[in-house]
């Protein structure tokens, strides 16, 4: 009888998602609205109907963690190694020091429940920032090309992964998806689709090179990037940026996917009943509502499943 060596146990796996962009990526949603009947699984296709009998998202999804940089308010604090991994709590550590929550809530929740794996969120987002410097000022710390992408990679992602690997030396880190929520500023500055496309590709190549080394990805593997269509102030130039998104998806099939924001509402689009139990957002026509962000997270989750990089329980 020939007895072979016992097969080594598969290493434990943890999944990572990264959310980047400006304020709609950070998420200016009021987490108190999780108590509203519109908080349900399937809102991405169900809104504006209230569909009973579905699970609801919670502020504290189990086995979901976020890399929190609590002092990252002044732009220069972004360079400080002050972050730590914490259990995710919507409205507490989900948007730096702001009491808001974003697309990561539904995205991470659904990935965790589908796979049974722990999910870790890295969320470098900077409000009112351009992809590229153009005619007008972009808010600190600067434009994504090249300042903010450097901060996002070197001072968020690298620091987050160093802390994770120190605490979990035997766990394999698998990046699943990047959510890119940006373009509002560029639409307001009359950028062309070609200009946005070229600047994004420059940033995208920088990010891919960093990720291949940081996550030890094979040469033919890129992290899936999902991009929601703009629904900001509804200016015509938002359509120009949306055209650029579609051009990017066509240029990188399978690696970049566009999410259709469609009927998902901004904060000031909400009816009186939809605003309950908080009346905030009456005059905010530039930020997506909680229900929209929950829906976009569901659409992003569907793209992750379609790509086949995670397996169900």
Quick structural overview:
This protein has 313 residues and is an alpha/beta fold.
List keywords for this structure.
34% helix, 9 helices, two-stranded antiparallel ribbon, 313 residues, alpha/beta, single chain, Rossmann fold, 7-stranded mixed sheet, globular
Report what the structure shows.
By secondary structure, the protein is α/β, with parallel strands linked by helices. It has one domain (12-307): Rossmann fold (3-Layer(aba) Sandwich). It is 34% helix and 15% strand. It is built from nine helices and nine strands. It has helices at 23-26, 43-46, 104-115, 144-167, 184-187, 193-214, 237-251, 272-275, 290-307; strands spanning 12-21, 29-30, 64-68, 84-87, 100-101, 119-122, 171-181, 224-228, 256-259. The strands form two sheets. The protein has a seven-stranded mixed β-sheet, with helices on both faces. Helix 4 packs parallel to helix 6. The longest helix is centred in the middle third of the chain and has 24 residues, at 144-167. It is globular. The model has no long low-confidence stretch (mean pLDDT 91).
């Amino acid at each position: 009888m020939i007895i072979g060596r016992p097969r080594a146990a598969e290493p434990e796996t943890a999944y990572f998602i990264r959310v980047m962009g400006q304020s709609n990526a950070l998420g200016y949603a009021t987490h108190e609205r999780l108590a509203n009947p519109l908080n349900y699984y399937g809102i991405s296709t169900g809104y504006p109907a209230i569909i009973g009998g579905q699970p609801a998202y919670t502020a504290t999804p189990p086995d979901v963690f976020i890399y929190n940089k609590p002092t990252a308010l002044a732009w220069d604090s972004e360079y400080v190694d002050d972050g730590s991994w914490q259990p995710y709590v919507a409205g507490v550590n989900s948007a730096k020091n702001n009491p808001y929550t974003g697309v990561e809530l539904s995205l991470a929740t659904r990935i965790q429940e589908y796979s049974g794996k722990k999910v870790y969120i890295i969320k470098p987002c900077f409000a009112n920032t351009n992809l590229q410097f153009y005619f007008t000022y972009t808010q600190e710390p600067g434009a994504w090309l090249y300042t903010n992408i450097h901060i996002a990679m070197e001072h968020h992602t690298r620091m987050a992964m160093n802390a994770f690997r120190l605490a979990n030396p035997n766990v394999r880190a698998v990046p699943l998806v990047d959510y890119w929520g940006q373009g509002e500023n560029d639409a307001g500055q009359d950028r062309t689709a070609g200009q946005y496309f070229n600047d994004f590709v420059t940033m995208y190549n920088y990010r891919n090179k960093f990720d291949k080394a940081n996550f030890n990805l094979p040469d033919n593997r890129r992290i899936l990037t999902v991009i929601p269509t703009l629904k900001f102030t509804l200016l015509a130039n938002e359509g120009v940026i949306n055209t650029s998104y579609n051009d990017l998806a066509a240029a990188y099939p399978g690696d970049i996917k566009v999410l259709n924001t469609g009927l998902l509402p901004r904060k000031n689009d909400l009816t009186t009943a939809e605003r309950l139990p908080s009346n905030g957002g009456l005059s905010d026509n530039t930020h997506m509502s909680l229900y929209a962000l929950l829906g976009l997270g569901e659409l992003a989750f569907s793209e992750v499943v379609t790509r086949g990089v995670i397996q169900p329980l």
